[in-house]
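Render this sequence as a predicted structure.
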Amino acid sequence: RRRTITWVGRLHSWICLTTSSSMTEQLGTSSSTTILGKFLGVWDLVSFHAQAADGTRTYPHGPHSWGQLMYTADGYMSAHLSRQDKPAVKNANPVIGDQLAYTGTFDVDVTAHTVTHHVHCFCSSSGLPEMECSPDNPAYFTRDYQFGTNEHGVDTLLLSLVYYDQSKMDLLWARKKPYPHGTMPVKERVIG
């Protein structure tokens, strides 16, 4: 059994689920490989909200969240979510505030339409309980996925989780344009 942890709403309730999927088991067909390829790259957060069973919508990181999600071809991922409207405080500790970041590996179950993040390192200043996780003892975040295209022709990725009480959490991501190689300034470092 895997330990799977999910997160929803302002209360940041933790719910344990079980899942069993493996990227290596799912990559037997060319359509599976194509689906996996759709995940790869960098995604910017468009919206992040939780919705109660009665339809009430809340915004765990405020209505103007910022975030970035990355998937690599060799199976690694990282995610960062933050409030965009953090108050500016002189001499403030930069790690205090509504932020959540984690990194690890991922797999895709094309039959169940889920992606599972194997969390190796987790950091939060959002009032969430600390998680003990490592590459040898990861936590698992499993979400339903749906690909689409927005009105500007940009690829989108919707990650969702519906809970037992029919409440749900949705994170909508838009594919980030590739950074043009050769335009990033490089500073020379001379040591010694």
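Summary. The mean pLDDT is 75. The CA atoms of residues 5 and 16 lie 5 Å apart.
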